[in-house]
Amino acid sequence: MSQSAGHALTLRGISHAFGQVVAANAIDLDIRPGELVSLLGPSGCGKTTLLKIIAGFLRQTSGDVLVDGASISHLPTNRRRIGIVFQNYALFPHMSVAQNIAYGPIAAGRPKAETDAVVSEMLDVVQMAAFRDRLPRELSGGQQQRVALARCLAIRPRILLLDEPFSALDKNLRLDMQIEIKRLQRQSGITTVMVTHDQEEALGMSDRIAVLSRGNLEQFAPPSDIYDRPASLFVNTFVGTANLLRATVAGISASGAAVRLADGMVIETGRETTLSVGAAVLVAVRPEGMRVSATGGAGAIGAEITAVMPIGPALIYEVTLIDGSSVKVVQEREADAPLAGPVFLHLKPNRITGLFPDHSGDTHKKGN
Ligand SMILES: Nc1ncnc2c1ncn2[C@@H]1O[C@H](COP(=O)(O)OP(=O)(O)O)[C@@H](O)[C@H]1O
Ligand SMILES: [Mg+2]
């Protein structure tokens, strides 16, 4: 599959409107050769629209799509050498596995010997050689997906597009297929753009994730940055679990902002903010960025455990703070019985993922 490997894909100022709905708003993405990039966001945020624009099924309102620096926006779908696997696979039901895979090369006018060789190669790549004469309905969901992928790769695409590729698979099979597709992608080195609304899938599989919200690109970064350094409150709450502590900015120094929590305690966040002193702020911390204990100490926040959920090796505590808000804390299950009643909450150093403006009081102020 070496001819397919290593092409750069660029979206430059891509916008698309369906009437009043802006499905893509000036999206810029530079995808490196061989990268696996996920487009992640809630239903309706514009993921499929971007994929269709890249594939040429939809002509963007403005902006340009480039492969290896050359515009492909003027090319029809079948001249772009871009392969797309849809979420329902869309195999030809009356054709065998081998015929499905041969479809693309035959339509492209490839000689029979070459087509046969490609079909054999692709059957091996997706480990489906033993099933070559079966019909799609005689295959499991995972097998159908392998065939859909093989059929797509048989045209030697420069770019591979996957639209919610695992959504039709049950949970156990999904992880197997995720690992398999990632392995295939690595082996082939084919630049891949995958659409998903599943944050774990995006975090687990991607080199970089583009998080979208209502047609806007919120952040484009490696999974660890998206998780640890989300660029917006939207990213922080859409990816992973977010606890949001209400506070006000108490001071700003070179090492970051200090905030005052509801119980009056001031903590150093280690994070920068553009907010000014006195502004209402939401302090975002992941469940594993905090710890509860029976004993207090410096920086400990008084709280009360209101629910405990044991999940295998870990415990999830729901902890309620003095202002009535509650947070979730995940920690390792100790030999002793879980904590209960009044406890202390500790923020681990450098684990605050962000400081975001708190607008929750604004409507109240305006209303009065
Ligand atoms: N053919 C269409 N006509 C009108 N509106 C559309 C069309 N396709 C998508 N949209 C709208 O554009 C927005 C983005 O849709 P889509 O790209 O399918 O989102 P996603 O794949 O992230 O769920 C949604 O508001 C959707 O309703
Ligand atoms: Mg979609």
Automatic annotation (TrEMBL):
Transmembrane segments: none annotated. Keywords: ATP-binding, Nucleotide-binding, Transport. Residues 9-239 form the ABC transporter domain. InterPro entries: AAA+_ATPase (IPR003593), ABC_SmlMolc_Importer (IPR050093), ABC_transporter-like_ATP-bd (IPR003439), ABC_transporter-like_CS (IPR017871), Mo/tungstate-bd_C_term_dom (IPR008995), P-loop_NTPase (IPR027417), Transp-assoc_OB_typ2 (IPR013611). One of its GO terms (molecular function) is ATP binding. Pfam families: ABC_tran, TOBE_2. Belongs to the ABC transporter superfamily. This is Spermidine/putrescine transport system ATP-binding protein.
